[in-house]
Amino acid sequence: MRYRADVRPGWEIGEISNGGYLLALAGTAMADAVGRPPLTVTGHYLTPVRPGPAEVDIVVVRAGRRFATVRATLVRDGKPMLAVLGTFGVADDNAVRRVDGDPPQITTSSVPAAQPARPDEPPFPSMNERLDVTLRPGDDGFRRNEPPGHAEIVGSFAFADGGPVDELALLLATDAFAPPIFNSGLAVAWVPTIELTVHVRAVPVPGPLRCVFRSRFISGGLLDEDGELWDDSGRLVAQSRQLSLYPRP
Amino acid sequence: MRYRADVRPGWEIGEISNGGYLLALAGTAMADAVGRPPLTVTGHYLTPVRPGPAEVDIVVVRAGRRFATVRATLVRDGKPMLAVLGTFGVADDNAVRRVDGDPPQITTSSVPAAQPARPDEPPFPSMNERLDVTLRPGDDGFRRNEPPGHAEIVGSFAFADGGPVDELALLLATDAFAPPIFNSGLAVAWVPTIELTVHVRAVPVPGPLRCVFRSRFISGGLLDEDGELWDDSGRLVAQSRQLSLYPRP
Q1: pLDDT of A4
Q2: How far apart are CA B163 and CA A230, in angstroms?
């Protein structure tokens, strides 16, 4: 099964389309192919992607009663750019619930991510114009060369047009913040994602998400980044983990 | 590319082959196909697998200079049983290193996982005979109906025959302990894995691994399980996360 896809301009970091946006794009085709929302989706990033037409090749590996497992490849000119594997299905809302953790505190003094800290600041990732993302005061330190010293970023996520955040938008939201390692004080340049896995745990209620992203293990030229996304009612709606390259600047 | 595989007896939990064993089996074929060790591997479990002959179908999505991305499907009688996506390559040992975390403490009083607590205890998972796994005192509470109340298990991992734990064995080690939710005090039965992702962060030095597994988010009929595996020198060698079904007993 092949879907036509349009990698739209306006979702780039620099000139390269955002990894979460691409995962949501492939995930949308996968969800359509099996008629179910995503539960767990993994993307492996093969090459930098720029805006333009593309295709999503879909193979349904198994469609069972409750879950369907799907492979997808984002392709341009016959060249694979993103390989995805996901299981789709609906969670059981009446099930046992126990949570060890709390949503991060988001204060009204949080800093809009799309507001330059200084007039001489380099241009913003274009995707920030489409998002309403704020950062915990201090967590925007990397933009002023004042990293707080922890590899952590806390903030809120919404679409600038007020559109709802559904299960597919959660795939985008897990990669819509600056890499937390920017706040570590380590010298870093670009942080390309090798692999990103998202577990969708619930459908968010209306309102901004409260998000926390952390990098704990930097070694072997690689680093992890763990994310928790909570909705406005204080419910965990997604967990993410990515493995990224740590290229020295 | 197709590999013949033998799902060997002796790696079952009950009658079902262990998920980490199957991931290592597929991962071995994938690593062979591209001549590189695993860096990040995700398996989606489609159906329970029993011992017997099988095949591993391999598609190399992209083989670059540094990394190779590979799809694999474990198949029997034309029926897919496990879908895998992985990126293979060698970490850069001279890179920057910063770690926020410590290996768990393993004491000499840790309890062998393969030693029945009571004469009337149900039979052990057969794979325990091939492993030298110990549990932190108290973390074996689930076996005596004395769960400590935390969804956590700490223990050590080695092969019973003293064989080395290489990158592929790490895939097995991430799923070789009892589910930590058994220690939560919640009523649980079987905990089938839907998806398991492993990041291989380093090659272990000789000696037992020190491992910690935790379930933090139980909701929607699903639960997570996060693992950290440290080697005998105190270096993090793997991170794992799985999404499992929470079926009520």
Answers
A1: 97
A2: 43
Q: Is B224 on the interface with A (CB under 8 A)?
A: yes
Residue length of chain A: 249
Question: What pairing do the DSSP bridges indicate for beta strands A67-76 and A52-63?
Answer: antiparallel
Nearest to A155 by CA among A205, A114, A201, A202: A114
Enumerate the β-bridge partners of residue A223. A218, A244
B186–A contact, CB cutoff 8 A: yes
Amino acid (1-letter code) at residue B103: P
CB-CB under 8 Å, A40 with B44:
yes
Please report the sign of the dihedral spanned by the C-alpha atoms of residue B101, residue B103, residue B104, residue B105: negative
Query: Chain A residue with minimal CA distance to B86?
Result: A44
DSSP state of A109: T
DSSP reduced 3-state for A51: coil
Other CB atoms closer than 10 Å to residue B107's CB: what's the count? 10
CB-CB contact of B173 with B158 (8 Å): no
Q: Can you say whether residue B150 is alpha, beta or left, with left for phi > 0 and alpha for psi between -120 and 50 degrees?
A: beta
Enumerate domains of chain B plus CATH numbers: 1-90 (3.10.129.10), 106-249 (2.40.160.210)
User: Is A34 in contact with A68 (CB distance < 8 Å)?
Assistant: yes
Please judge whether A220 and B243 are an interchain contact, meaning their C-beta atoms are less than 8 angstroms apart: no
DSSP string, A213-237: EE--EEETTEEEEEEEEE-TTS-EE
pLDDT digits (tens, 9 = 90+) for B157-201: 999 999 999 999 999 999 999 999 999 999 877 899 999 999 999
pLDDT of A117 strictly over 70:
no
pLDDT value at A114 more than 70:
yes
Does the structure show a pLDDT above 90 at B123?
Answer: no
When scoring B23, B34, B42 by the number of chain A Cβ atoms within 10 A, the one with the most, hence best to mutate, is: B42
Of A96-105, A149-158, B93-102, which has the strongest mean pLDDT? A149-158
Which residues of chain B make contact with A218, given a CB cutoff of 8 A? 96-99
The token pair that represents B40 in the structure block: 């990040």
At which residue do the structure tokens 């991170």 appear? B239
The answer to whether B61 and A80 are in contact (CB under 8 A) is: yes
